[in-house]
Design goal:
By secondary structure, this protein is mostly helical. It has helices at 7-26, 33-64. It has two helices and no strands. The chain is elongated and about 55 Å long. 0% of the residues are buried.
């Protein structure tokens, strides 16, 4: 992240890496599942965020009486 000049994301990346490593240490037989679960969590979070933004925009335009863009 530092080489990509994304200094704000470096901490998030470090914390995520630590979480995956700690979970892998606690249960090493199923360690391969953790990155897949984190990817699934991320995809679900993005989908919820996009849906929330769409719903909020829809409600905002309807409340103002403007056509939905």
């Amino acid at each position: 992240m530092l080489r990509l000049d994304r200094r704000d994301d470096a901490i998030t990346t470090a914390v995520t890496t630590i979480v995956v490593m700690v979970v892998a240490l606690k249960n090493p037989t199923d360690a391969w599942e953790q990155p897949l679960l984190r990817l699934f969590d991320t995809v679900v979070g993005v989908a919820i965020g996009v849906a929330g933004k769409w719903i909020a925009s829809f409600a905002f335009y309807k409340a103002r009486g403007e056509p939905v863009q």
